[in-house]
């Protein structure tokens, strides 16, 4: 199974009022919707829901890339088991190795509990997903996410009586992959030397292991860098990098090692930065705000950041959902005919469990570096 992370709006952080500004009759509309369409129980009032930032990360194992309702077979949990502790709405949920629901300690799993259609002021529809955590046989809706574009922070959406729809059984949502980002200030190798990513322009060439490729789009986002999106700091030399490298947790590094050939059939494999954390030379670096930059090429490719091979923005199937609405609109406007969702990963991407097979790394000698790539091209020439 792969490990997945979703970022939700904790229900304590979603402000709900009736359309006239009065509080709803229910104290916990989002939680009560576990038992039916609690939004419609406020009839005849429409509801206003205002969202901040989806800052709570929930990490779980996943067999199929889809978050479903009731991932059970009889009394067994067969998918979506929690793999990392999470505190949400003041409650801490801790993973359990158990899979049988009636045993102690009970298994803990994540579910798509319900889906409801909301609308913005212009009438655009959003599909909101109620996310629950189940401990044994006790299920609690802890927050919401969206199937498709996530509304920008501060957006107010509306539940319209008689128009909005609700589904509470058998629904599923494709899990949006995380966007891979470099922290602003990261040096990217170009034919004329290293340049800070924020100084690159569309059309500029960057070095890849095969030669060079033009930059097609550069995006940026400013996020809360203290929790789930805290950058991973890779200290100088930890992976052969020439300076400290800061990337988002899911940003993948290209490793080249004979050990990978032995276990996975290829010497070149991709490993997410969060799977390489060792608590010393590779660790999270929380900060009040993280200024992240996204670098898009014609295809998923490796670029050299601080001297080592790391991936460009991957826009494979459903990956566009991980970008905010403004970034999606910008990309579609720039590339109306570019099949952004048809990119393919250039190399196999390892799960957390698979990555542990390769650790510890040998002081960066298992990482593809710019100097190594440059020398190989010289020899080929």
UniProtKB/TrEMBL annotation:
<dbReference type="InterPro" id="IPR036844">
    <property type="entry name" value="Hint_dom_sf"/>
</dbReference>
<feature type="domain" description="Hedgehog/Intein (Hint)">
    <location>
        <begin position="180"/>
        <end position="316"/>
    </location>
</feature>
<protein>
    <submittedName>
        <fullName>Hint domain-containing protein</fullName>
    </submittedName>
</protein>
<dbReference type="Pfam" id="PF13403">
    <property type="entry name" value="Hint_2"/>
</dbReference>
<dbReference type="InterPro" id="IPR028992">
    <property type="entry name" value="Hedgehog/Intein_dom"/>
</dbReference>
């Amino acid at each position: 199974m792969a490990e997945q992370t979703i970022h939700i709006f904790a229900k304590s952080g979603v402000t709900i009022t009736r359309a006239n500004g009065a509080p709803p009759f229910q104290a916990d509309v989002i939680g009560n919707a576990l038992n039916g369409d609690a939004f419609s129980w406020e009839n005849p009032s429409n509801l206003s829901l205002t969202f901040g930032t989806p800052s709570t990360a929930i990490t779980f194992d996943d067999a199929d890339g889809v978050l479903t309702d009731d991932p059970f077979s009889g009394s067994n949990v067969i998918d979506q088991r929690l793999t990392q502790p999470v505190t949400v709405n003041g409650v801490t949920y801790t993973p359990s190795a158990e899979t049988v629901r009636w045993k102690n300690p009970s298994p803990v799993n994540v579910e798509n509990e319900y889906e409801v259609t909301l609308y913005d002021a212009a009438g655009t529809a959003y599909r909101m997903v109620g996310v629950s955590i189940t401990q044994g046989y006790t299920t609690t809706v802890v927050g919401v996410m969206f199937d498709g574009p996530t509304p920008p922070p501060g957006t107010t959406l509306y539940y319209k009586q008689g128009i909005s729809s609700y589904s509470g059984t058998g629904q599923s949502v494709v899990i949006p992959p995380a966007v891979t980002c470099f922290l602003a200030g990261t040096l990217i190798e170009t034919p004329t030397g290293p340049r800070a990513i924020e100084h690159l322009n569309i059309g500029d060439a960057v070095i890849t292991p095969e030669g060079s490729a033009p930059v097609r789009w550069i995006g940026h986002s400013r996020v809360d860098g203290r929790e789930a999106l805290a950058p991973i700091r890779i200290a100088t030399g930890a992976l052969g990098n020439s300076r400290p490298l800061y990337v988002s947790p899911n940003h993948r590094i290209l490793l080249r090692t004979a050990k990978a050939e032995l276990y996975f059939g290829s010497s070149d494999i991709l490993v997410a930065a969060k799977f390489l954390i060792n608590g010393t030379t590779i660790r999270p670096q929380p900060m009040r705000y993280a200024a992240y930059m996204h670098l898009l090429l014609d295809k998923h490719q490796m670029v050299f950041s601080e001297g080592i091979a790391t991936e460009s923005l991957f826009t494979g199937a459903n990956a566009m959902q991980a970008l905010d609405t403004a970034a999606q609109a910008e990309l579609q406007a720039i590339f109306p005919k570019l099949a952004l969702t048809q990119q393919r990963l250039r190399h196999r991407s390892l799960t957390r469990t698979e990555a542990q097979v390769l650790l510890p790394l040998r002081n960066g000698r298992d990482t593809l570096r710019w100097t190594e790539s440059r020398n190989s091209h010289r020899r080929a020439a």
